[in-house]
Amino acid sequence: MTSPHEAHSLKQVSHSPPVLSVPFDPRPPEPLPEESTVDLKGYLNTLYDSRWLIGSITAIITIVAVLYALVANPVYEANLMIHVEEESPNASKNILSEASSLFETKKAAIAEMELLRSRMVVSRAVDNLQLYVEVQPKYFPVLGSWFANQNGGALSKPGLFGYGGFVWGGERAAVSVFEVPDNWLNREFVITTRANNRYRFSGGGQRIAFDASVGQRYRVQTPDGLVEIKVDRLVANPGARFKIKRKSRLGTIQGIQRSMVITEQGKQSGVIEVKMQGQDADRINSLLSEIGREYMRQNLARKTEEAEKSLAFLNQQLPILKRQLEQSEDRYNQFRNAHGTVDLREEARMSLAQAASARARRMELMQKKTELLARFTEDHPVVAAVNRQRREVDAEIEAIAARIRTLPVMEQDEARLTRDIKVNTDLYTALSNTAQQLRLISVGRVSNVRLVDAPIEPERPIKPNRPLIVALAVVTGLFLGTLLAFTRKTMRGGIDDPAKIERLLRARVVYASIPHSGNEDKLMRKVKPDGGLPLLAQILPEDPAVESLRSFRAALRFSMPHFKNNVVMIAGPTRGLGKSFVTANFAAVMAASGMRVLLIDADLRNGHLHRYFGVDRSRGLSRAMAGAMPVDEVIHRSVLDNLDFIPTGELPNNRSEFLLQLNLGNLLELVSGRYDLVLLDPPPLLAVADALIIGAHAGAVFIVARSGVTTENHINESIKRLNHAGISPRGVLFNDMALRLGEHRSQYGTAQLGYAA
């Protein structure tokens, strides 16, 4: 009798998804759950299934991070802060200027940030501190510096078992002079401490080695040029080695420029912060302090540069002007001395007064003579005396007139000399005043930048931040583990949920979901290479995997009346799906229910069911099919209660052709009448054609799929091949399913029971 549900035969697989034929079920079919857009539960299950992988990766990365955090060299950070003030803070403001300030940026702070990083500033600091000379102790690789930091600064015994010259403590060295030829730059040389405050210089890949004393300057001529060195201090035991390198000056400057982090604090605040990191706290503090001092010095020098240049020019001109003024005064004094005058204007006034007085006397003498001539003659002594007096007055008037006539020329000379003195005096006075003002400017000029916070030597390192490193390692490990888990799942493409098979085939076809058995793993670890295999249903009958097979037993007993015979074949698409484990344990479960069961190992290529029951394979199916032995003689009876077993027998050549013999059908027809159930375990479906030949004689065929291994293509291809051979599989057994999140855990363990649709 045929069930209505057998209408779901898989005949048209090329045009629609394969649909398994299923036994009759009087209940109406329930709609299958639709797959959600975001399968959150599936993602969580993937994470849960890969928990050991994720945990292992996280543990490895965390351990590496912890080791790194322990041995990593400490990194310190120093900083300084500079405030750049506006050039004209008292400038007038109006609506337009206030509005424009909303859109403009402070270019002064940006310019000062670039100046701080410039070679003009950094190169001076490099030269002052001689940072192109690098000296450090020779530590053992990876762990040496960590051991040195744990030694508390005490000196150590150099070397590892007396070799290598490695130092393990607070050894120190100071070198003030180290010059090498240009082609020896950036090469590593070695200073080896000797006794009596001496050392040996060698290395650099050159044939150069010499002994020297601490505190003395040595010059050694080589074919490439002069080597010059002065070691100021060596604090180490004899045998300790130091690595010394003369780096390129330009390379050192550029390295410092790259290491400087310069930022403006706040928006348009004009406050600039300079940070620098390094493994030597004293070195970065000294370097940053030197950069700050050099920057401030050059900034102030730039502000007073104009005044200093003007002052230098005036200092050159003032002596010249002073000599010119002195020469003008000398000529004026000589002029005064030569002419016996003090003031030409007063001299002219006096001369005019004298001339007027002389003329008045002459008039009086002429009047007196006129009166005398009325009484006396010209020869009279009185008249003669008057004439004599008049001549004297005339001579005096003439002399005064002559003197007055010379006054304009003298006044011109005197005015010219006075002008020269005045011009030179005014110029000299003005330049003297300007020079004094410039001196005041040079002394009292304040820069528009000020050092707010000077660098301070850091006390604690900022790196490595051990808690943060470990936390990031844990997060990174979880991320990489999760990424690898999803990548592995994507690459494998294995089905991890039986519901996906039912959605794929659009029918409730999963008869049993067999959970992963930890007990089986423990038993298999004890198995020897050629020893027997443990039968879980016999050793641990309460295992969840066995319980799931019992649910399949109930479904099969309900469906068997609808099969054409009692021969059931359990096949798998590929190897490694646990098909033999399922078949052997299911046979034991069916036999335990009281049914008479015959288990046949039909895998004539790699069958190994005989190892479950401890029998020899030579007396088996292949010999019965070949007619070499009767069927009764190849049956190993009562391997378990109610369970008989036929092994593969000797593996023949041309196995597929061997199976095409009519003897196989006759054998199965013979034994099916003697047993309640005949179970067949064939080779993989997709690997060889044996299962298709054997399945033609079976009343029902079930496909075994393994969680995470079997893919949708495996299921589709297996069904397609069975359909092409005229076989309609009855259902799917989902094996090795891991414990899923949100599923039930009974008192017997975790078991996801299948459907009997």
Give the arrangement of secondary structure elements:
Blueprint (H helix, E strand, L loop, with lengths): L39 H10 L1 H21 L4 E9 L10 H6 L6 H11 L1 H11 L3 E5 L6 H7 L21 E8 L8 E6 L4 E6 L5 E5 L3 E6 L2 E11 L5 E6 L2 H11 L1 E5 L5 E8 L2 H23 L1 H35 L4 H30 L7 H64 L4 E5 L12 H27 L5 H8 L4 E6 L2 H8 L10 H4 L4 H16 L7 E5 L7 H14 L4 E5 L8 H4 L7 H5 L5 H4 L1 E5 L2 E4 L8 H5 L2 H11 L4 E5 L8 H6 L4 E7 L5 H13 L6 E7 L7 E2 L2 E2 L7
Parallel strand pairs: 13-20, 14-18, 14-19, 15-17, 15-18, 19-20
Antiparallel strand pairs: 1-11, 1-12, 2-9, 3-8, 4-5, 4-9, 5-6, 7-8, 10-11, 16-17, 21-22
Family: Belongs to the etk/wzc family.
Subcellular location: Cell inner membrane
Keywords: ATP-binding, Cell inner membrane, Cell membrane, Coiled coil, Kinase, Membrane, Nucleotide-binding, Transferase, Transmembrane, Transmembrane helix, Tyrosine-protein kinase
Structural features:
cell inner membrane, five-stranded antiparallel β-sheet, Rossmann fold, 757 residues, rod-shaped, kinase, single chain, alpha/beta, EC 2.7.10.2, eight-stranded mixed β-sheet, 22 strands
Textual characterization of the structure:
The protein is an alpha/beta fold and 757 residues long. The chain has 3 domains: 78-281, no CATH class; 308-444; 506-750, P-loop containing nucleotide triphosphate hydrolases (Rossmann fold), CATH 3.40.50. 47% of the residues lie in helices and 17% in strands. The chain has 24 helices and 22 strands. The protein has an 8-stranded mixed beta sheet, with helices on both faces. The chain is rod-shaped and about 215 Å long. 30% of the residues are buried. Mean pLDDT is 81; it is low at 1-19, 21-32, 89-93, 99-105 and 744-757.
